[in-house]
Design brief:
GO terms for molecular function: 4 iron, 4 sulfur cluster binding; lipoate synthase activity. The protein is α/β, with parallel strands linked by helices and 104 residues long. The chain is built from three helices and three strands; from the N terminus they run H-E-H-E-H-E.
Length: 104
């Protein structure tokens, strides 16, 4: 997990530690992440739509970077917020990329 060991989502099906106010990120995280990738280059990155706060330009930039391997819209969350359903159209932009698209 990137940006700390605490998630702000609080999904009921997940065993990850959650908090509305997690600790600030470790300033060494970019270096530590780079070291981890160097040790295990086949490491996969998965992102959820909500990771981007609706910033579709950021989603597209990550898709073009080649690092994203799994892109996952959380359908239950989308259904609870109709405007978030608009984000789902982004999935169509990934048809030419080697990205697995899943829904949770």
């Amino acid at each position: 997990m990137l940006v700390g060991d605490t998630c702000t989502r609080g999904c009921t099906f997940c065993e990850v530690k959650t908090s509305r106010n997690p600790s600030p990120p470790d300033p060494m995280e970019p270096d530590n992440t780079a070291k981890a990738i160097k040790l295990k280059p086949e490491i996969m990155v998965e992102c959820l739509i909500s990771d981007f706060g609706g910033d579709l330009i950021a989603v597209e930039a990550l898709a073009h970077s080649g690092w994203l391997k799994v892109y996952s819209p959380t359908i239950l969350r989308l259904l609870s917020n109709f405007s978030a359903l608009l984000d789902i159209h982004v999935l169509g932009t990934f048809s030419n990329f080697n990205i697995h698209k899943v829904s949770a």
